[in-house]
Specification:
binds erythose-4-phosphate; 218 residues; alpha/beta; eight-stranded parallel beta barrel; single chain; globular; 8 strands
Length: 218
């Protein structure tokens, strides 16, 4: 499974990239606005692409097809790693098909139903991003959506990659893996939580304590 970091924070991105743990980055306009200050977001996208050698999702902010296509071209021209994120709307799907024919990779985002995911695949999306946590937030079963999309894509052989998004805790990631999502994007905090286990800490403390008794070095 590919692990993507869901952030535009370059400190966090460098930390994870230095550990060679991530395959790509997803951002959205909210995440970019949290870190941009007075910087041009396009410069931030370029910097992220220099740090991470993998897909870096950058989202359009237009809502009509033609302006989305124009924005998608500009974003894609920034760096080969850019994947253009488009919202799952009628215009977003049309823009997805249009830019896909130009060889621009796409991530159709804000997916909340299996029927939307079907149309993303029909539109030739490279990735579809079902938002698990936001469905849970309104008392739905977010993970059920990942199950259903996996089944539909497998039934019909669609090669759009399922990018499980809006993951809020390690079990969201584990369940996505078990279902067979192609990728999972998560905030830095969740990535590092994946590494934690109290028995690892306890075991390591005991090993080091015992080793200290030897007074030896390696
Ligand atoms: C994915 O591409 C989105 O940026 C993200 O996962 C949204 O997560 P949130 O619902 O926690 O904001």
């Amino acid at each position: 499974m590919k692990i993507f970091l869901d952030t535009a924070d370059l400190v966090e991105i460098r930390r994870a990239a230095d550990a060679n743990l991530i395959d790509g980055i997803t951002t959205n306009p909210s995440l970019v606005s949290q870190v941009a200050g007075d910087r041009d977001p396009k410069e931030i996208y370029k910097e992220i692409c220099e740090v991470v050698d993998g897909p870096v999702s950058a989202e359009v902010v237009a809502t009509d097809k033609d302006t989305m296509v124009a924005e998608a071209r500009k974003l894609a021209a920034l760096h080969d790693n850019i994947v253009v994120k488009l919202p799952l709307t009628e215009d977003g799907l049309k823009a997805c098909r249009a830019v896909g024919t130009e060889g621009i990779r796409t991530n159709v985002t804000l997916c909340f139903s299996v029927s939307q995911a079907l149309l993303a695949a029909k539109a030739g999306a490279t990735f579809v991003s079902p938002f698990v946590g936001r469905i849970d937030d309104i008392s739905g079963e977010g993970m059920q959506l990942i199950h259903q999309i996996r089944q539909v894509y497998d039934n019909y052989g669609y090669d759009t990659e399922i990018l499980a998004a809006s993951l809020r805790h390690p079990m969201h990631v584990v369940e996505s893996m078990l279902i067979g999502a192609d990728c999972a994007t998560m905030p830095p905090k969740v990535l590092w939580q994946l590494a934690k286990h109290p028995l690892t800490d306890k075991g390591l403390d005991a090993f080091l304590e015992d080793w200290d008794k030897l007074g030896a070095t390696i």
